[in-house]
Design brief:
Helix content: 25-40%
CATH class of the largest domain: Alpha Beta
CATH superfamily of the largest domain: P-loop containing nucleotide triphosphate hydrolases
Number of helices: 12
Largest sheet: 8 strands, mixed
Structural class: alpha/beta
Strand content: 15-25%
Length: about 325
């Protein structure tokens, strides 16, 4: 038995593209505990968004999905869209990356919130209107009553994101997935949205999954960090261990992502480190470690066989034949 709110086991997602199979997610397993924050980190195309969309049943028809995803013990994979509606919104909700594209530009934002409320709750229009105003206040929307009657284009990026969060929270879900929810925002607004999400998490006793490519965000706001590359988990550890002073990073891809973070101490003339090369072709299976072609420390064994994701220290898993020592790449 487990106390996990969400338990994902051996999740696999395959698309058919041009007669070839694209394995976007390949054997991913993780848990999310009540009230905790899990950050899923990786480059674009690593499979982090597809992983969460598969759990919510938000992938195109015909996508092959295998494995298991249990929310409070109830299996989600394999359910029909009608059956999944019992869980979407009320138990698990998602905030998407670009609110300008996710919101309907022809509808006032208040009506979009009331639509979400009435989809999941048996309330009349007057009560839905009252609840929508309360949600706008909950997400710290200034002049909530006036904003209710405005269109998305009349709001700033931060305000639109607050509307998306209000829609996601319409039924007080136990798990909120935030998919790059702050990517298009300036640094100040990004911090405000993240602080808002953490405040709401405490207030509503909600678990949170943060999907991002921003290692700094993961270090600042998460309890657990899961690093994905080429559809697989390559490292997972508590945030305090992964980003702590002792430098516990072991997977060389994780180390490369950390090294690429700009910081003020770096000399102005210094070249910004980058992760060299390109992610592998998802239609081609390499026999060895998928990161080996981009890794300066790759050896013959890295090219011959893929390392397994194993727990080498309490709560710390990684997949690397030649891990970093003391968190530093040699």
């Amino acid at each position: 038995m487990t106390d996990a709110l969400l338990q994902v086991d051996d999740l696999r997602v395959t698309f058919a593209v041009g007669g070839r199979e694209v394995r976007a997610v390949d054997g991913v397993s993780f848990t999310v505990d009540p009230g905790r924050t899990l950050a899923i980190i990786g480059e674009s195309g690593s499979g982090k968004t597809v992983c969460c969309r598969a759990i919510l049943g938000l992938l195109p028809t015909g996508t092959a999905i295998g494995g298991s995803a249990r929310l409070r013990g109830a299996e989600l994979l394999g359910l029909s869209d009608a059956e999944l509606r019992r869980y979407r919104g009320s138990d698990i909700a998602m905030v998407f990356q670009d609110p300008a594209r996710s919101l309907n530009p022809t509808m006032r934002v208040g009506l979009q919130i009331t639509e979400a409320i009435r989809t999941h709750r048996k309330v009349d229009r007057r009560e839905a209107h009252t609840q929508a105003i309360e949600l706008l206040r909950l997400v710290r929307m200034p002049a909530a009553e006036r904003r209710f009657d405005e269109y998305p284009h009349q709001l700033s990026g931060g305000m639109r994101q607050r509307v998306m969060i209000a829609i996601a929270l319409a039924c007080r879900p136990k798990l909120l997935v935030a998919d790059e929810a702050t990517t298009a925002l300036d640094v100040t607004t990004q911090a405000q949205i993240m602080e808002l999400l953490l405040d709401l998490q405490t207030e509503l006793d909600m678990a949170l999954i943060l999907i991002s490519h921003d290692m700094g965000l993961a270090a600042s706001y998460s309890d657990e960090v899961l690093v994905m590359y080429a559809g697989k988990i390559v490292e997972q550890a508590p945030a305090t261990r992964l980003f702590g002073a002792e430098g516990a990073v072991r997977m060389r891809y994780t180390r490369a992502l950390l090294d690429a973070i700009p910081h003020l101490e770096r000399p102005a003339h210094a070249e910004l480190p980058v992760v060299g090369g390109r992610p592998p072709d998802p239609t081609t299976r390499l026999p060895g470690c998928s990161f080996a072609p981009r890794c300066a420390s790759a050896a013959d064994d890295c090219l011959a066989k893929a390392p397994a994701l194993l727990e080498h220290a309490p709560g710390h898993r990684w997949a690397c034949w030649h891990p970093c020592e003391n968190g530093v790449a040699s």
